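During the reporting period the student researcher (J.K.) took over the structure-prediction task from the postdoctoral fellow and processed the backlog of single-chain submissions. One of the processed entries is reproduced below for the supervisory committee.
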Amino acid sequence: MARKFGKRIRAAMEGVDRETAYDLGDAVKMVKTNATAKFDETIEVAINLGVDPRHADQMVRGMVELPHGTGKSVRVAVFAKDAKAEEARKAGADVVGAEDLMEAVQNGQIDFERVIATPDMMAIVGRLGKVLGPRGLMPNPKLGTVTPDVAGAVRAAKAGQIEFRVEKAGIIHAGVGKASFSEDQIRENVAAFVDAINRAKPSGAKGTYMQRVSLSSTMGPGVKINVASFAR
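J.K. obtained the following structure tokens:
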């Protein structure tokens, strides 16, 4: 069955050549122009990679701090005790606790998007693997979310640091701003995100690593970006 689009979406799609890969600046301008919904649409980037994440040496995962943040407030939970718990609170953590936080999570109270833990809390956090793992919330030392510097990790999360992880089909996607951002802010955020993906290239990647990049807003059509434009 053919997919039906509203008049606004059809009009936006008419201005985008689906086969053309545009320079980053032009793509950003088109996506912003087409973000005409009545709310502040999220600007999303999707990257097709030449990897098979079923193989450990082709997994792509990491963190990146976007220079202009995401435009979205992130609720952060921290597993810590005593002085470290106080540091987390002062840094702006939304939920802080130890055994009490573990029990809350076990009871389904998960009202946060990022979990940070001090190393000594991992015995407690480890019991929550089946709950936090499927949601992508399990703290990981490689991602900087298991750290004695909880204050720094909380501030980074609040400032717009995002986690990325390649999906089974070899695609990574993330929100990299809002339609209300300036073109320069979106362009710089997209460039920072793509640069982080390039730096995370795994040892097992063969052939063309970054195969396709596209940009869209929540309600707008996707615009392909010329991958070569990121090398300038």
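The committee noted the following: The first strand starts at residue 42 and ends at 49.
J.K. will present the remaining backlog at the next meeting.
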